[in-house]
Amino acid sequence: MASLILFFSPSLQAQDTPDYFRQNCMNCHTVGGGRLTGPDLKDVTKRKDREWLAKFMANPKSVIDSGDPYAQKILEESRNVPMPTLPGLTKERLENLLDLLEAESKLEESQFKGLKISNKPFTDEDRALGRSIFLGTTRLKAGGTACISCHSMHDTSALGGGWLGPDLTNIYERLEGRKSLSAWLMAPGTETMLPIFKDHPMDADEINSLAAYFESSAGKSPADPSANRIAFLLMGLMGAAACIFGFDAIWKKRFHSVRRPLVDTAPTRGHE
Amino acid sequence: MNHFLDQFMFVALPYVCLFTFFLMTIYRYQMQSFSYSSLSSQFLENKHHFWAVVPFHYGILVVAAGHFIAFLIPRTILLWNAHPLRLYVLEVSALAFGLLTLVGLIGIVVRRFSNTKIRYVTTYTDWILFAMLMLQTISGVGVALFHPWGSSWFASNLSPYLWSIVILNPDISFVVALPFLVKFHIVLAFLTIGFFPFTRLVHVLVIPNPYLWRKPQVVRWYGRR
Questions:
Q1: Structural domains of chain B, ranges and CATH numbers in brackets
Q2: Which of A8, A87, A239 minimises the CB distance to B92?
């Protein structure tokens, strides 16, 4: 019961505001480093008043759903990727975040200017390693879950990848290139991926390889998953049928009934 | 609103169900130990029985064991799934046993419904339980078919959530964004655990182990009915 009370109370963890920003915001935003999936937050408090910003940050989905024109504009500019609800966001933390953004905007160079993404061209080796990381054959160093668990690519063989998340065949274009894609992979921000990769982040080499693999799929069409689904169902049905036949064979001599075996084995009258 | 619904479904409800399970299971064993049985109906109808009960039990045992193993050793499951072929073998097997459970359960319900003698010995609690198990099996097979590959994402998302419940520090961030069907399956699983001590399911706790490999034998009742 104590844990229940603790859980329902507002979370006031010791984690400070810059760390919170780094973990939860930097995968989509920079301060003065240009837009990633979300807008550059430099001078955001000058663009919109604090009250609106606090309302939007507390529950982006409800503001978007309310039809607010500015929220719609942000959504459109973010290629219709809505901002996820932030975990453990208290009123106090919201105010701290807005203070931090104001302070960082005034600096010549913010600590949140963003990643330095390598400009080195992708090699075949990068692409092959990326594919192997995607499939899980090369394990992610920090123990993150392989992409295939929830995602598919145009060239994922046999029964394909998972369908819990979207097909990633055109993700390189959808996220508009190397910089945004790499920033996203630094700290994946969807509600399903965030808790997995928060404690098992990918390193720069892994991100580079994955970006290379995703770039190589540009222009390809995603695989049609319906054939895979049918094949998967048929294989399951065959397995189940095999088990049923197996049970009948194993317990062939089980007790069936009293009368029938007696009738079957009794000598038939009227014949020699 | 949704936040509180999630808190209720994935924090409050699991604890209520687990608490009920432990308390009532012990209480029933103390007060009515002889009611710890599934009350076999094989004596009343033996032909259809085999085709329903055997697939159901082997199906559910393998599927439940699979869930339990993924909960206990998620990293090992992920290691096994590190090669797509091994992942596919695990997923197809899990689906096969899930379908086996479904076929068996449909057989059980049809048998209980269509045979007058069996219908007479089926209680309201049994019918509620069958409905719950049916929905649980259908949603489970649905999850396997429409949200693969569950063996991997169970290990990375559901196992940490379930452990957070066990260590009394619930973290629902792992489950809030999962699809409706998966959430439904989780909630119904906890409800079934909570309902467990009031049903014929208690036989799971007192089962003689040789049941799994000995020849089926006909059992008759000594009590009323």
A1: 44-212 (1.20.950.20)
A2: A239
